[in-house]
Amino acid sequence: MKRIQIIDTTIRDGQQCLWATRMTTPMMLPIAEQLDRAGYDGIQLLGPIGFDVCVRYLKENPWERLRLMRERLPRTPLASGIRSNNGITFGLVPEDVVHLWVELLVRNGIRWFGAFDALADFDNIVESMKVAKRVGAAGLGISLVYTVSPVHTDEYYAGKVQEAVRRMDLDRITIKDSGGLLTVDRVRTLVPAMRKAAGEAIVIELHSHCMTGLAPLVYLEGVKAGADAMHTATAPLANGPSQPANQTIVRNLRMMGYEVTIDDAMVAEISRHFAAVAQQEGKPVGVPCEYDAWHYEHQLPGGMLTNLQFQLGEAGLLDRFDDVLAECAQIRAELGWPIMVTPFSQLVAVQAVYNIMTGERYRTVPNEVKKYALGYYGRLVAPVAPDILDRIVENGSKTIPLRPEPPAPAVNELRRKYPNASDEERLLRYMFAGNQVDDMLAAGPINTRYDILTTPLARLVNEVMKLPRLRTVSVRAEGARLDLRQ
């Protein structure tokens, strides 16, 4: 009986998809022991967006989060990685900065290190993988982002697997279906093609999202086709734009005769904890989505759809929402079928909005679109349509050279500029402009306490204290009085 590995995404991708990455470290810490004892083969903790939100919005030091969680999860490998040579930004980052970032991730507790490049241009990640191996990563993996296009065939993905295995010392390869686009029919052919190219020793993982409602069935068919590991989230942070629910996938795998070494009692505790946090904080919970064939045309990730609707509404253009989505589909074909994942999903959507707002296609060209078309981000999967390339070059910024040059090294200068800071702080200061890092540091160490409010009175007081401009709350009952002041 084959054992299927389970990689938990609850505190990384699950909360990113459903809570906009606003889960604080104190919300994680009380359940860390149960996460460690649940039997997961790995736990995803921090991605690039997690660093960004920690610093800019939560005022938490992400390196401190990593260390706190590592202390509380001594048995289960924590997983993290990088997005190509972008670091945690959308732009290009000097190679020495990326490599130091990799080194610090591993030294601060990441045992499984992974990388992905949206163009599958491995020149952008090979050296980083070597750094991770050299500094002690226990497992190395890459993600090949799945999409639907005329060029992203099974043969294309099998060829990329062969190249990756030849160039990197890999343990794992993930089919990263960020858009929730995989279908049952496609997974039945894609997994065997990748398995044949990878060989039997490399673990093949499935990572999908539930935007079309197909991901749970895709997982089960993927296992039958030869996949070894599933990325799941624990409900209530599963479904919707998140991953399939751990509870459902594990139950179904067992019914199909597979071995899954997950402690259901621990998972139930984890589920109850995050359900209580969601209720207390007013956070949404994941619910299954209906199938929508239109999603396969524009392929925008779920979180981006919500943000796009909001931004168009603010601009008074909400009635053009469907037009923008149709424009996204056309732009994607013209740009050589970029995969709709960060940063390319953002640049396609922004170009679509400009095209609709101005009424003239490519009259306004963002810098990122011109850089993409000129190959700044790597080798394109397919060429940009010649007439579109001409417009992009003509209307884009004239300050962008036609031939990309790699960014100059920056680590030595950072160490000179901040002689009393740690390398962790130096890298944050490189990535974040203005006073953002100073504001984070001024907030002090991360609060490690989080109390679940179990009584109606406690929950009432908690909600009342969130009201703006409120300074005092007075509660009286049966001769008792409680005064709270902010």
Short description:
Helices cover about 45% and strands about 10% of the residues. The chain has about 475 residues and is an alpha/beta fold.
Structural account:
- By secondary structure, this protein is α/β, with parallel strands linked by helices.
- The chain contains 22 helices and ten strands.
- The chain has helices at 10-19, 25-28, 32-37, 48-58, 62-72, 95-107, 126-134, 154-167, 184-198, 215-225, 246-255, 264-281, 295-298, 302-314, 321-334, 344-358, 367-373, 386-395, 411-417, 423-431, 436-442, 456-465; strands at residues 5-8, 42-46, 78-83, 112-116, 139-145, 172-177, 203-208, 229-232, 472-477, 480-485.
- It has an eight-stranded parallel barrel with strand order 1-2-3-4-5-6-7-8, surrounded by nine helices.
- Helix 10 links the parallel strand 7 and strand 8 (229-232).
- The chain is globular, with a radius of gyration of 23 Å.
- The relative contact order is 0.12.
- The model has no long low-confidence stretch (mean pLDDT 92).
